[in-house]
Amino acid sequence: LKKIADIVTSKGGSYPVLSGVDAETALKGLWRSDWKQGVVIADSNTGPLFSRTLSDSIKGMAGRVLELSFPAGEENKNRRTKEVLEDSMLKAGVDRTACIIAVGGGVTLDLAGFVAATYMRGIDHVNVATSLLAQVDASIGGKTGVDTPYGKNLIGTFHQPRAVFIDTGALKTLPLKELRNGMAELVKHAVIADPVLFTALERMPFPDDKTIPPEILNRSVLIKALVVQEDERENGKRRILNFGHTAGHAIEMAMDYKEPHGYCVSAGMVVEAMIAEKICGFPGESTKRLIRLLARFGLPVAPRIGFDALSQYLASDKKNRGGEIHCALPKSLGVMEEAGGRWSLPVDPSLFKETFDRLGGG
Ligand SMILES: NC(=O)c1ccc[n+]([C@@H]2O[C@H](COP(=O)([O-])OP(=O)(O)OC[C@H]3O[C@@H](n4cnc5c(N)ncnc54)[C@H](O)[C@@H]3O)[C@@H](O)[C@H]2O)c1
Fold first, then answer.
1. pLDDT tens, residue by residue, 91-101
2. Which of 173, 239, 282, 343 makes the best surface tag, with the fewest CB within 10 Å?
3. Taking Cα atoms as reference points, which of 130, 222, 213, 126 lies closest to residue 169?
4. Within 13 Å, how many C-alpha atoms sit on residue 267's CB side?
């Protein structure tokens, strides 16, 4: 694997992000002598595909390795699953010398990272990202947590991984729908920080063979890495990662999570690009390019739901403050509106309504 970034954390440490095939060899190379136990945590899809090879690779180095899995799916990213995993670890005598190897998509990494954050007041973990969304997004930045009946990711904490492995070979088994889901975040990275990446994506055919050119994948990973390094706790610049997400989350909630996150963010990016045209001069031609690109990747370019059905969810988002609806908006491709260091702007609900109506949602 090739090192594409070393992310410096606020505590003064750093962790490497490595990308390529053969995550098990890289894991072996990075294994620390003070990690006496390994706990591989995967879901019911990624476990059978990857856990054994990873645990075999560290067997001679960790005293013992425990393999755990939980049923795949966002609905299992909850406190109950966390408790089941923790109890299995306690029962097996896992102690503070253990390192958790989280292997899977964002659900597994968020959940296993949260287990690591609180197990015996915090143990180390590494992320092996196997979905495209986890590779370009969830594996980096240290956000961990679980969902609740009251909303997603409402219980959690920051806990930085010791290393991140972007296992590009793993994409071969990833369902196409999940690949599209990750493509939406990749496009988002191009819009918020990298016009060259945007052009490269425009030239890239949809990867039916699940191969994303490394220069494209790694550029996207690097954008996430640089942004979280600059603002670990989301007090400022990290908010640019929320482009498309204010509208996207509201669409997701109004559709009762039946539509994948990336698909909702895709439609959300179109909505917010049109809003950006009105309030910070984003060129209409760039919105057209964005729509063409998303459509080519098989992603929705308009909400499938009307404004009335989702307005109640717009203000409830945890990104919003004091009842105002906030959006991170681009000024041009690759440049976000700084808004005096807040990196998000209040948007009048009537502008949302007008935009949804123009897009003919519902
Ligand atoms: N921590 C963060 O900063 C952050 C950022 C973005 C998203 N997230 C979270 O990430 C989650 C979504 O992540 P996701 O889209 O990866 O979902 P996911 O983890 O549910 O993965 C999607 C599906 O693909 C399967 N899968 C993963 N890798 C595979 C592979 N290589 N081969 C075959 N199947 C594979 C999984 O088992 C699952 O069924 C959400 O819970 C979201 O809140 C977190």
1. 999 999 999 99
2. 173
3. 130
4. 27
Determine which one of 125, 188, 238, 239 is catalytic.
238
The stretch 180-202 carries a mean pLDDT of 98
CA distance linking residue 112 with residue 39, whole number of Å: 10
What is the distance between the alpha carbons of residues 26 and 29, in angstroms, rounded to a whole number? Answer: 5
Whole-number percent of the chain with pLDDT over 70: 97
Summarised one tens digit per residue, pLDDT across range 239-295 is: 999 999 999 999 999 999 999 999 999 999 999 999 999 999 999 999 999 999 999
User: Residue written as tokens 């060899």?
Assistant: 25
The whole-model pTM stands at 0.96
- Helix axes 176-193 and 195-203, enclosed angle (nearest 10): 140
Digit-coded pLDDT (tens) for 36-68: 999 999 999 999 999 999 999 999 999 899 999
Distance CA 256, CA 189 (A): 26
Residue 358: burial class (beta carbons within 10 Å; 0-12, 13-18, 19+): exposed
Q: Closest ligand 1 atom to the C-alpha of 173?
A: 32
Cβ–ligand 1 contact at 252 (below 6 Å): no
- Binding site membership of 174 for ligand 1 (Cβ less than 6 Å): yes
Is residue 245 part of the annotated active site? The answer reads: yes
What is the three-class DSSP state of 199?
A: helix
